[in-house]
């Protein structure tokens, strides 16, 4: 089993729990990241996957996130969603953000649940 700082880097990039141990959860998150990047989803962090992780211009992918939803989730991912929705980007997923997500979902003709899951995320980006 692989462990160490490189594993932590991968875990941060793909949205896995950061414990420095490349276990089944990390492998699953790597597969999701690879699919979102259009790579072969083999769960192995080879040269193409590393390039996607290290490329700062890489489109943010849903696999790097948990589903964003109320009440009061916080962070940079929430702030980026808020910017894309055109609401105050305070980084807190409160009632105004949820309302904006619902409106966006309605406009896009997708399930209106107020959560930023994979479909909503992909439409936003």
Q: Please tell me the overall pLDDT.
A: 81
Strand content: under 5%
Q: Determine Rg (CA atoms, Å).
A: 15 Å
The class by helix and strand makeup works out as mainly alpha
Oligomeric form:
single chain
Number of helical runs? 6
Q: Characterize the main sheet.
A: 2 strands, antiparallel
Strand sequence of the main sheet, in spatial order? 1-2
Principal-axes geometry comes out as elongated
Count of DSSP strands = 2
Strand/helix succession: HHHEHEHH
Helix fraction by DSSP (H/I, runs of at least 4): 40-55%
Low-confidence stretches: none
The termini sit apart by 35 Å
Give a summary of the structure in a few sentences.
The chain contains six helices and two strands. By secondary structure, the protein is mainly α.
